[in-house]
From TrEMBL, chains B, E:
The keyword Transport applies. SUPFAM superfamilies: P-loop containing nucleoside triphosphate hydrolases (SSF52540). InterPro entries: AAA+_ATPase, ABC_transporter-like_ATP-bd, ABC_transporter-like_CS, ABC_transporter_ATP-bind, P-loop_NTPase. The keyword Transport applies. GO terms for molecular function: ATP binding; ATP hydrolysis activity. It is an enzyme of class 3 (hydrolase). This is Bicarbonate transport ATP-binding protein CmpD. It comes from Aneurinibacillus soli.
Automatic annotation (TrEMBL), chains C, D:
It comes from Aneurinibacillus soli. It is found in: Cell membrane. The gene is ssuC_1. This is Putative aliphatic sulfonates transport permease protein SsuC. The keyword Transmembrane helix applies. GO terms for cellular component: plasma membrane. It is a multi-pass membrane protein. The chain crosses the membrane at residues 7-25, 65-85, 92-118, 124-143, 177-200, 220-241.
Length: 317, 248, 249, 249, 248
């Protein structure tokens, strides 16, 4: 947090404003998808809005949502269906903005695998990072492809999406991103193929959204709006200056963990078209997409029938 | 100084009492020996007097007072040496002074003098594992003396010593006893020793009260008295008493 | 001082007080129940999920745990004995032993999986890795710190090393061994749970993790409850065994 | 039998043989280097990432570890002493202690995060949770198993409970305490690593985990290497201290 | 049977040798006592003979053979009783038989007989913590006898016993010695005892060779011989020898 007040932030001349603290937790370790945040921070956009942003990393996939719901943090990067599931379990959170508007999550198989479409999952070990949601993904895909989900051996692989596949402990893995895990595996000499979820009946969803608790939304409406204004400005900058935007991310990480520039570059190329929609401002959510996702979750008994799509998200003013 | 009245004691694990209705008294400044067959309960009496165990029946008075907590009132030298292996000879000897909170320097001076008197010079800084059996016993004896208590309960203090060293230690004990007016209750299996050093000898027989034999020898006692016929007579009498023969 | 029969009521009273405080704390203090559910909700979860918990996952975890603990004991005993008899082996092996404890499981999880696959053995391996260290250290220290005078006595009887070992050194090392075994027994539960994080299809740890990702805290804590009871049970069994073996005290 | 000065060469030789075998195995056996890199690659990683490893993460881990271990010792000593002096407290507390060990960290990680946040204290808490159990058990067992004749002797000197405790029971419990401390010292490294999985922005465990997610095995194993050395160092320090304290043997 | 030649020994931790150039021999079937001041090295000689330690110089022959490994060749009764606290009295006594692999039944019968002879009947199943000092010593003695070795090294075997029990044990030891033709080397601090039981007495003085005093008393020895003038003479002579006075 303290670091964000030094350096470029001062140049913008916003130092006199009293700053409000805002905490956001990422969905994963910092990677290309988070460039807009680091850019906005380094360019002083948050400072301009009177925001002192603290970026935290999660310990576990579900931490951001839970911590946000418990008001330990203000904002959480999370997955669209996860918000609906949370509401269904009585966890009071809402999505406030879509960051990546389309799926990144794919099923990865080794390049020379005999698996070519979901019906080939039958009799194979499918690894997933302990998200019940992934079982529904696989089920939907297999049923669409005319196979019986019971034939797949679903295996919980814990934290290590990548090495589970690379060590041939599983025949396929779901939960890796086509902009990240796929590129990494290819680069490290373990070529893989991706099977898209949306090709086999899984509805188009926003891979990453930002969520906050009902209470935070009610109490800090103005602050959140200012946050998103600054974040959007950051995203605009990244869109127009890809190299520089990425540079802010890499620079921020340098001390603790050297990111690989080429991987992040490729990643950002894939990401940017999925983040901004022509004619819509950054973060705009589609009621239609929410309805489809919630319907699909209901059909697969992942959420209770009384979950309303419109409760799952809210637009910022 | 020490009065034991109708003492009865039975170990919790055991089915018969070790001590059954035992009574005796020791006057201030007296030197009394306690003899009896192995397993007759001598050490048990010491456990009771020192307060390590409570009698099932009977009373124990120290200095005329029957106290609930007798611990720390008398000095007990146990039959096993029980030296603390992690302390040097000097530190073992200083233990009672430490516990009493006596000034360290003065206690150390006294301890070092006594180490020399006990023939242990050069061993002050040795750990007990380096000592011979008799040396360990002497350290244990010194430690008991260092409590400074007026009543000394000594359980076979010189049992592991050769004649000469034993005589020196006896003479020294007698001098401490006389000069400082201590009261001593002394367990030994050596009847000669008992007769030589004591004013009275108590003979303990299991399942029986103890018999009191005053020793009519003059003071100071010298080691040459061992060869006198009086001593030989006491010796034979006591030997027979232990074996229970004098009653037949 | 410590002779009285072991009575359980103070622990029970304490636990009840703790539970009531917890229930109140959660209900009044407003701790969100998706993070820390109240005891009553946990009991609810226990009932709701009882068929899965007891029918499937408990058995799986118990199997991993027992197999692992048994292997640990075997391994720890053999290693301590070897180290005890061969100073060379000790010098070679003790450092490896310590290193084995500091290697973070998450880092070698792939290696583990490479060797053991996702079968029972990978979880057993984790149990062994976690529980044999306290055992080895305490057993070996116990063996080393035995009274050398007693050993000497047996030597004068013409006892060979094996006899000395069994008749003197092992009995002298028992108290220390049991200290280690108590720790190891409890850690075997932890080991099984960690093993299940690294990849599993059943087991209480697996169940808890899935419940956690489904944001069902009642299920998470129901499995935690079962795991804790398992740990207490393991400890108690060892404690009873210790009492029996060291009854001469 | 075991009097000779501790010589290091057998361990060194053994390690060298192990390393050579590993290098050969990886190079010839065709284990993919992103799963198990050869020792030479690990050394390469160590050099490549040395500024991050030693400049940032090592310090963070050492801090968590030392603070945690110190707290553990304090806590374990106080608890054992309390349990030793108060049988009631023992009966109340021992079961809680065991339960605390069986609760899977991953399950209470959110609770931890809720209480401690993602700060130093959450990692310290994990270190304490993991390392104080072996300490408490061994210290408490050590205190309980002391020679009662020696205690009786001190009682006849009029020693109060505190004096008996310090002058007899503590020295008699020391060997057992050191057994536990050796285990605890090594486990404190593991504890810090696990603490870092549960949420961290620096530390060797964090570094290794991120390296793993980026499939950079050389970095993973470089951090593992540093962690192992740390563990061996901790053990050695305790071992030396034990030697000094128990030199009368 | 036992020949010690120019034995020199120094404890590794110590700066001067305990034993310096000691020589003596014990014939088969002989009963020899070893006396000397506390700390003079008696127990150390036993450690060397039994093979627990190796001399720095000199040789030790058992049965005429100078063996490298003497462990198990002679029976040593140590000065401390060293009973195993986790074994009952009977099991402690059976230990040597177990180690020798002797049939358990026969050994148990023999042990039980001896337990009775030693006045310990009723204690076969007791743990050592329940025994008195003298009882522990008797158990330790029985355990040594149970080795069945021809040479017995007894380090103050009866030091903690009262006169009567001691006399019984002495008589019993002598009967075993005579009947079974054992060779006995006997450490005691009781010169009377040494004279009464031995064929010869060896007097050990630190830093000096040991002096050999044959005892010209007839056999069988009875306890009443204690009062004979011959014995008294030996006693005085030996006492003076220990203290080094006879050389002046
Ligand atoms: N382990 C040891 N390390 C160093 N010195 C020792 C050791 N054991 C004994 N000594 C020393 O050797 C000397 C002789 O000891 P030893 O036990 O042989 O005497 P002893 O004649 O049996 O005496 P006692 O009659 O008191 O039993 C003593 O001065 C003692 O301090
Ligand atoms: N802790 C105990 N538990 C049960 N019985 C015991 C215990 N200690 C001693 N006894 C028994 O009490 C009796 C007396 O023991 P005590 O030690 O008082 O004898 P003693 O007269 O000192 O003998 P010695 O001269 O052999 O030392 C013995 O028969 C012994 O077996
Ligand atoms: C770069 C990147 N890789 C993986 C994940 C993790 N992840 C992707 S989808 C999903 C939910 C279930 O499939 C999870 C946990 C991420 N967030 N970011
Ligand atoms: Mg006694
Ligand atoms: Mg001796």
């Amino acid at each position: 947090g303290g670091g964000s007040q030094t350096g470029p932030a001062k140049q913008e001349g916003a130092q006199d404003k009293p700053k409000e603290k805002l905490t956001i937790m990422l969905d994963w370790y910092p990677n290309a998808v988070h460039s807009f945040l680091y850019t906005a921070m380094k360019k002083g956009y948050f400072a301009e809005e009177g925001i002192d942003l603290d970026i935290q990393m999660p310990a576990e996939t579900n931490d951001p949502l839970r911590m946000a719901a418990a008001n330990k943090i203000d904002l959480a990067f999370t997955y669209q269906p996860a918000v609906a599931i949370a509401r269904s379990e009585g966890v009071p959170v809402k999505s406030i903005a879509a960051v990546v508007r389309h799926p990144l999550n794919v099923v990865l198989v080794p390049k020379n695998s005999s698996i070519h479409s979901p019906k080939d999952f039958a009799g194979k070990k499918i690894g997933y990072p302990s998200m019940p949601l992934d079982e529904v993904n696989i089920q939907t895909m297999m049923e669409k492809d005319g196979a019986d989900f019971k034939q797949a051996k679903m295996t919980d692989i814990g934290f290590d999406i990548i090495s589970a596949l690379a060590t041939n402990r599983v025949d396929a893995v779901i939960g890796g991103y086509k902009n990240h895990e796929q590129i990494l595996l290819d680069k490290k000499g373990f070529p893989v193929r991706a099977i898209n979820l949306s090709d086999y009946g899984v509805p188009d969803s926003s891979e990453l959204v930002i969520a906050a608790s009902d209470k935070t939304i009610a109490d800090k409406k103005d602050l959140l709006a200012r946050f998103w204004k600054a974040a959007s400005k950051g995203q605009d900058y990244v869109l127009n200056h890809k190299q520089e935007g990425l540079g802010y991310l890499l620079a921020n990480e340098k001390k603790e963990f050297p990111l690989e520039k080429d991987v992040e570059e490729k990643s950002l190329d894939i990401l940017l078209p999925l983040m901004n929609e022509q004619g819509q401002s950054f973060g705009t959510q589609s009621a239609d997409q929410w309805t489809k996702v919630v319907e699909w979750l209901k059909k697969n008994k992942q959420v209770k029938p009384d979950v309303k799509p419109e409760d799952c998200f809210t637009a910022l003013p | 100084m020490l009065a034991v009245h109708q003492l009865t004691y039975q170990y919790p694990e055991s089915s018969t009492p070790v001590l059954d209705n035992i009574s005796f008294a020791v006057q201030p400044g007296e030197f009394v020996s306690l003899i009896g067959a192995s397993g007759s309960g001598k050490s048990t009496i010491f456990r009771l007097i020192s307060g390590l165990a409570e009698p099932n029946a009977g009373s124990i008075k120290i200095g005329g007072i029957q106290e609930k907590n007798r611990l720390g009132k008398v000095a007990l030298m146990p039959q096993k040496d029980l030296l603390l292996p992690w302390r040097t000879v000097l530190d073992n000897i200083l233990l009672p002074a430490e516990i009493a909170g006596r000034p360290k320097e003065e206690a150390t001076r006294q301890a070092q003098e006594w180490i020399i008197r006990a023939g242990l010079s050069g061993y002050a800084d040795a750990y007990p594992s380096r000592l011979s059996g008799g040396m360990r016993q002497r350290v244990s004896f010194l430690r008991t003396i260092m409590t400074g208590a007026d009543v000394l309960l000594l359980d076979e203090p010189f049992g592991a010593l050769d004649t000469l060293t034993r005589q020196e230690m006896q003479a020294w004990l007698l001098s401490i006893w006389e000069q400082l007016g201590k009261t001593v209750l002394f367990i030994t299996h050596d009847i000669e020793e008992a007769v030589l050093v004591s004013d009275r000898v108590l003979v303990l027989r299991s399942g029986d009260n103890c018999v009191d034999v005053p020793i009519g020898l003059g003071r100071p006692r010298t080691k040459d008295m061992v060869f006198t016929p009086e001593l030989a007579a006491y010796r034979q009498q006591l030997t027979h008493m232990i074996s229970g023969r004098e009653r037949e | 001082m410590r002779r009285k029969a072991y009575t359980y009521w103070p622990a029970v009273v304490f636990f009840v007080v703790l539970l009531v405080a917890w229930e109140m704390g959660v209900k009044i203090g407003g701790v969100p129940s998706f993070i820390l559910p109240a005891p009553s909700e946990i009991i609810g979860g226990l009932i709701r999920y009882s068929s899965e918990l007891f029918g499937v996952h408990l058995l799986a975890t118990v199997e991993e745990m027992l197999v692992g603990l048994l292997l640990s004991i075997l391994l720890a005993v053999s290693l301590s004995v070897l180290m005890f008899f061969s100073p060379l082996f000790e010098k070679m092996f003790y450092p490896v032993l310590i290193v084995s404890q500091t290697v973070p499981l998450i880092a070698i999880a792939p290696v583990f999986a490479l060797w053991f696959g996702y079968s029972l053995s990978s979880k057993v391996a984790v149990v062994v890795l976690i529980s044999f260290f306290p055992l080895v250290v305490s057993l070996y220290d116990g063996l080393k710190s035995g009274d050398s005078e007693v050993v000497d006595l047996l030597r004068t009887f013409g006892a060979n090393r094996v006899q000395i070992f069994w008749k003197a050194q092992v009995p002298m090392a028992l108290p220390s061994f049991f200290s280690g075994l108590k720790v190891a027994a409890v850690f075997s539960v932890t080991g099984a749970t960690i093993g299940e994080w690294l990849g599993a299809e059943q087991g209480l740890g697996y169940f808890g993790r899935r419940m956690s990702s489904a944001l069902r805290a009642d299920g998470v804590f129901a499995s935690v409850l079962v795991l804790s009871l398992l740990g207490v049970l393991m400890f108690t069994v060892v404690y009873m065994w210790e009492k029996r073996m060291l009854k001469h005290k």
